[in-house]
Design a protein that fits this description.
155 residues; alpha+beta; Aminopeptidase; five-stranded mixed beta sheet; 25% strand
Length: 155
């Protein structure tokens, strides 16, 4: 197989990336709507102030993606990012593609002069924890909470 290239999400890739995103979320027990995901992906591409999405693909097949959302952070005293998703198809894991996507996200955040890049990871997911640690991400001793407000996308 050809070495994947990493480029920003293009308009003709919305459904491919929505499918990858559904797979990522399903691995974490989260059920999502393809239409809602496509709507969110489209919003990020059309309104880059929301962040950016990078796609790893080979022969026009998406094999991984990463999404960093943008937020104005008081904690970091300025614009920063949240690494919302980083996903690589199982058959592409272990060949450095996750590292390449992460490095490209860090480069994009640096180009945008974001103050920091936050993320979360399942506490028992040691493989990805070591990936983030190798790229100088530090653990933060907090517990995340969520409250779902409405079921309809608001984009």
């Amino acid at each position: 197989m050809k070495e994947p290239t990493i480029v920003p999400l293009a308009n003709n890739q919305f459904s491919q990336i929505a499918t990858l995103c559904e797979a990522q979320l399903k691995e974490h027990g989260i059920i999502s709507s393809t239409d809602a995901l496509v709507s969110s992906l489209r919003a990020v591409v059309e309104q880059p102030q929301f962040g950016f999405i990078l796609v790893a693909s080979t022969d026009s097949l998406a094999v991984g993606f990463a999404y960093a959302s943008c937020l104005l952070s008081l904690e970091h005293s300025g614009w920063s990012g949240w690494l919302e998703e980083l996903y690589v198809l199982p058959e592409w894991r272990g060949c450095g593609l996750g590292t390449q996507l992460l490095d490209a996200i860090i480069a994009g955040a640096t180009e945008r002069c974001w103050k920091a890049l936050d993320l979360e990871v399942d506490a028992d997911h040691q493989r990805v924890i070591s990936l983030y640690a190798r790229r100088n991400f530090l653990p933060v001793p907090r517990t995340r909470f969520v409250r779902h407000i409405c079921n309809e996308p608001n984009i």
